Amino acid sequence: MPQPLPSAPASDGAPRVSDRYISFEGIDFEANMAAVMEHLRRYIDHPETGNAFWDRFKSRLADAEASDTPTTDKLLLLHSHTYYMAELFEDHDDEEALAALKILEEECF
Asked: Which biological process terms from the Gene Ontology are attached to this UniProt entry (predicted)?
């Protein structure tokens, strides 16, 4: 049986144990997505680093957030843009953003 992945502490400071391969219990999808989005917004919302590609992404994100299943739809959207986000974070030498993206990938995708 696969070992649980290490994960960041929960928002209350208690250690979090990932149960990804069995039930997804203990994985905070919203917090993981929010951490990546905080970093991503810093670039895609800025006129000097945003572009038409990221404008389209933001439009699709708004659609996902307005859907009947916003968590699932946002997760799918982020999953389908993982490599683009990684490239953006690498281009800006943003190790913190890359670390947040890695947690999202390993726990949620």
From this structure: nitrogen fixation
